[in-house]
Write a structure and sequence with these properties.
The chain has 245 residues and is of the alpha/beta class. It folds into two domains: 119 residues, Rossmann fold (3-Layer(aba) Sandwich), CATH 3.40.50.2300; 98 residues, Winged helix-like DNA-binding domain superfamily/Winged helix DNA-binding domain (Arc Repressor Mutant, subunit A), CATH 1.10.10.10. Helices cover 38% and strands 22% of the residues. It has eight helices and twelve strands. It has a five-stranded parallel beta sheet, sandwiched between helices. Helix 1 crosses helix 5, helix 6 crosses helix 7 and helix 6 crosses helix 8. The C terminus is likely disordered.
Amino acid sequence: MRIAVLEDDPVYADLLQTVVRALGHECLLFESGQDLMRQMRRDNFDLLVLDWSVPDATGYEVMEWARAHLKYPVPVLFVTAHGSEREIVAALTAGADDYMVKPVRVPEILARITALLRRSYPQVQNDVAVFGRYTFHVSSNMVEIDGHAVELKQKEFLLAYHLFVNLGRLLSRSYLQQVVWGTDTSAHSRSLDTHLSRVRSLLKLRPDNGFRLTAIYSHGYRLELLAGSTGLPLTAGLPWTADAR
């Protein structure tokens, strides 16, 4: 998971980065709200951990921007000294998923982040993830469409799986290269495009089948379910059966 932390206090920035990395996730630190919003225009995060009072844009304003502009529901955890009942209620009403008031204890931060990610991104159960007509068999790199098997190479399967898990999200090229090749270097740029072209063809991700896989120049790719199509609900980033992520 990629987690963005907005915090200008170096002590808390170091603490939160340590906690996130201890949980096995990637942590990107931001001291400026404007910097984080600019980064969100071209990159993806699985969780935002926000302080309220930071330079040039408050954590509250960052959350409002994310809710208004992002096409996927990124979870938000506030870790802040703003602890009045009015502020907590305002943040939760505006879309925050959880709220912690400083000073905070490390075990509680660990537990809150773990619980929030677990709620937001349920894990695949029984080695199978079902997305409407598409069934992903994780151990065999195989996808079934309406019960008909389509065998994919490992990297093709990983790309397809992440596109479906993040339906509607713009996935940056660096994100896709990281989750598939384990690195975001430009060495895999041409290979990424080739693999995604094959995924589009093999899984019939085209408008006449209800999907659009779009390349966004210099940013990345987005898989969209077209309005009016059948077979998948119009809900991005959420599990569609009990066994889905």
